[in-house]
Structures are given as structure tokens and as C-alpha cells.
Amino acid sequence: MKIPQSKILLFLFLIGLGSSAFAQSSSETIKILSYNIFHGENPNHQGVGNLEEIAALISELQPDLVAMQEVDSMTTRSAGVYGEKEDLMQKLAELTGYTGYFAKAMDFAEGGYGEGLLVKGNGKFETQNLPLPGGGEPRAAAWVTYELPSGKKIKFAGTHLCHQFEENRIAQVEAVSLRAKKEKLPTIWAGDLNLKPDSKAYKSIKGSWKDAGASPTPYSPTYGTMEDGARIDYVWFDSSKFTLVDYQVLNVLHSDHYPVLVTLQLK
């Protein structure tokens, strides 16, 4: 029996639709949030904590991975805000249901000060101490090996680079990049980098790294006012492994920085 050509074409069309839908469903997206939280204190109301508001924002946005900067752990400063010493990442983990990790960059106020990660699910965490060729305040990067629902693994790092010396920022960018290259996994890194897009440190970031907030994305300050602030908070990704889906700077006033929300798709 000869099958009409119209039915053959319809069959091939439906197969094409099915394979396209499978390709779309099998591709994985990762939502990243980077936020300098000003040690969990409302910058406009000294002594007033805001971890519950930050946790509510995270619960609303549902990012897979969160990089936080200016994080206190068991400091007298946190006691002055919350009435007792607090591990901010542990508290945020309890409030959100995420897994939290604190990477201490330095001793501070009888406790620690550094970077934090929140992960939806579990991960393998590590702290990388960053170089200080120009001296100044110690800095660190918090790393996690994160397993996606498909079983594929990626690397994610959150950091806060030196605010004093360009020499340090350049060396710290290089250290993070070398660590990512050594790991040989698709990598994303984010944080308050204390550098502007026209700086030497920014231009030192080479290779396949892509700034999620670069052109043609409209310029959006991440620090200061929305009218004349600076863009110093970033999400960088390996453009050979990921595609940018969405980039947003959220006009949220829980800190002196704005949160940066990025959605990526694993190639």
C-alpha cells in the first residue's frame, strides 16, 4: 500500500517537533544570585538586622546558587545587630532551606568575616585564599562543586576582591581563573569585585570568560544609586560551556549593593 506523501510529511514534521521539545527539555538552566549583604545590617538603619528580608527574597527568586559578600560569622558586630553572635550563613540556610557555607577571609571582631554560599541541595565546598601582592585586607573565594539534576557537575565560586589596590584585584582575578582552569568543569564565578568595566583588572580577564552584564545588556549600577552608581558586582561564566538567558539588577534596598540575578543555560 502506498502511503500518501502528505501523511509522510506530517509524520516527519511531528518527529521534528518531538526532537525539538526533547532538546529543549534536556537543556539545563542555572539561576545565579550574587549579593553583597552588608553584614546583615540595614545600611539606612544602624543596628537593625535584615536577614529575614534577604531570606524572603531568596525564597521568592529560587536561585540554584547564591554568592554573598560581607558576611560575618560569630562576631561582636553581629551581636550588636541581633542581640547575640550569629553565623549569618547558618541563619540564612535555616531560613531558606538551602545548604550554607562560610569561607573565612579574615579574623574579625572575635569571629570571622568573608564570603558565603547558599546552594539549593548539596555540594562539596572549599575555601581558596587569594593573593595580596600589594598588601591590605585578606580576601578569599568560596567554591562549590554542584551537581545538576541531570547528574552533570559544575563549579561555582563567590568572591569579594580587594577594595584598595588594583595590583591585588588583578592577581586575585588570575588566581580564580587558574583555579577554574585546573578544575576542568564548567565554571561560573560571581561577587563584588570592586572593579569597573573600564579598569585594568576588568580588562585582565581573558579567554572564554563572559561578563553576564556586558553589552548589549543595558548598563545598571549595582552599588550606590540607580541614577549614578557604579557597576562593581558581576557574574562571569565560561562562554564555551554556558549561554546567557537573562540578566537583571534588582532594585532591592536591603544593602548598599543591589542583587544581581543571572540565568544561564548549560550547552
From TrEMBL:
Residues 33-257 form the Endonuclease/exonuclease/phosphatase domain. GO terms for cellular component: membrane. The keyword S-adenosyl-L-methionine does not apply. The keyword Chaperone does not apply. GO terms for molecular function: endonuclease activity; exonuclease activity. Keywords: Endonuclease, Exonuclease, Hydrolase, Nuclease, Signal. InterPro entries: Endo/exonu/phosph_ase_sf, Endo/exonuclease/phosphatase, GPI-anchor_lipid_remodeler. GO terms for biological process: GPI anchor biosynthetic process. Residues 1-23 form the signal peptide. It holds the Pfam family Exo_endo_phos. This is Endonuclease/exonuclease/phosphatase family metal-dependent hydrolase. The lineage of its organism: Bacteria, Pseudomonadati, Bacteroidota, Cytophagia, Cytophagales.
